[in-house]
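Retro notes
What went well: the complex prediction finally ran end to end.
Inputs used:
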Amino acid sequence: MQDPKEKCMSVKDAMNPKIQEIITELKDKPGALLPILHAIQDHLGYIPAESVPPIAAALNLSRAEVHGVISFYHYFRDTPPGKTTIHLCRAESCQAMGSKKLEDHVKSRLGIDFHETTADGAFSLEPVYCLGLCACSPSMQMGDEVFGRVTPETFDNTIAELEVQS
Amino acid sequence: MSITIYIPCDSAAIALGANKVADAVVIEAEKRNIEIKLVRNGSRGLFWLEPMIEIATDKGRTAYGPVQTKDVASLFDADFVNGGSHPLALGLTEDIPYLKKQQRLTFARVGITDPVSLDDYLSHDGYSGLKNALGISQAEIVKQVTDSGLRGRGGAAFPTGIKWNTVLNTASDQKYIICNADEGDSGTYSDRMIMEGDPFVLIEGMTIAGIAVGATLGYIYLRCEYPHAQQALNTAIGKAYASGYLGDDILSSGKKFDLEVRLGAGAYICGEETSLMESLEGKRGLVRFKPPLPAISGLFGKPTVVNNVISLASVPIILDKGGEYYKNFGMGRSRGTLPIQLAGNLKYPGLIELAFGITLRELLYDYGGGSATGKPIKAVQVGGPLGAYLPESQFDTPLDYEAFAAIWAVLGHGGVVAFDDTVDMAEMARYSMEFCKIESCGKCTPCRIGSTRGMEVIEDIIEGRELNKNIPLLRDLCNTLLNGSLCALGGMTPYPVLSALNHFPQDFGITDQANAA
């Protein structure tokens, strides 16, 4: 007997032909699950719940296993992100150069905590544990761009530039 | 005649404005009708000078830095394209003392060549190691690596040759080479610099490894925080395939080796080799029991070499110049060179490749120039987030695996993070437990639950609650973590915690010596 929820999900599947396309393209790779999840997140910005059943079916896994993998890795998210995601480094080298003060400033400037998105959907804030930019701490990534020796002032300027552009 | 201008494409240089500077240089040159050839090289690793522009002159490359877009017009005014003098002029790059004093073997080409130009790679001794390897037997390749004394640069320092030998001697229809490029340790960036600055050297090292042990497929497990490295690797891999350096018939030798980049997804634990293999297999990154060793039963149950980026990138020079050449650098049982990464609160942070044996004090003051803030350096964490904190009294320790082990510290991947005297070491200890809590895979109870309890105990200590009870409790908990965890995350989180407690008891509110011991 088909679970009514599953039926509902399969209706949603039809709305996301790209997800099925990604699964079909990558499912035969050895260890295909992470490449599939990356491709979906690259395309949509997150991994919607309705993509779990078709992935599980294609890889002969249970939905719980697929969900377990999505929730294990910090990078994967199951909700849509803001327009720009800010990854702020919290690791030791950045702490040695004042990242805590920067973190407080960023949170109050955006009015959100880590793992949250601003009400207008403009920014999501995520912690990151090292961007490998430790020789120019503190560092952050904003969208695809990386920034070193970030100060509260340079952060505000960068945000202001983005806000002007949009 | 066109003038060659080098502006790094290293992501740290980009983070400091290199792309904007490159755009400005191109526009300004056009405006002034000066014909230039712009090369986006890797970084020399002198990060306080980034973005650093270099000009090819008759006398060699001459450098200017740190350059911001506002400086570009004045550089042209000063005729920098012909080596003219300017307040930002640094003289000949090779004569900058920070660089001149180094022994660059693994990093020989980084900052000099265009990272994704195969021609550049070939004209700077690239693929000489592979050519030598194709002329000798598999056992002889492994012997060269064993003779070199190379030990795993990821942190565990296991002899690379012994690992390869086990895989070579384990019969199987399929074997794998995995490059562990999940450089998650804070304060380390040498893997990133190699992958962005000289990706072909890693590809060559992995190809040699594959031929040596009979593996036909390699994976680079790259952390997703390194998009620039991903791009450089994929471009270089494409070129290596197109020119017969990868694929079914490498340099017409009949040997096959395929290579693919796979992305991690932000899990620190996946830098642990068994967790990494679980992740490559498409699972949660739960640590596996050992034995079986990955060299016998690794990825998909097949014999697998798992080596760090720097270990594999050191292989080409070993095969080019011989194991003995490499072994002649270093001290004791730590042979060859170590790319040291200076980070945190230092005036001159950067990449320093040197033979083992230099002391921490020389690194911090002779190279690092002391703290960036001008305050005394209070503590240094060596070897990433699981490395011990060292106080000033231990700064004369030489960089050597055994010398560090003797003071209950680790060299790890060679990251050195300095803190000035404003740091609160109890807070750093609390953070270590928090990091363990966030990144624990959850398999071992001491790590999964002990990290949360550890955070709570340290918070109690910071608040000054029942120190007589809580300090022994923290030590007992650390002991459980040390002895009751499968991998280094749980097993080594006590290093930063206990070293902070032992060397800086005053930060934990301990005044009575009896409590500190």
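What we learned: Residues 106 and 314 of chain B are 5 Å apart (CA to CA).
What to try next: split runs per interface for comparison.
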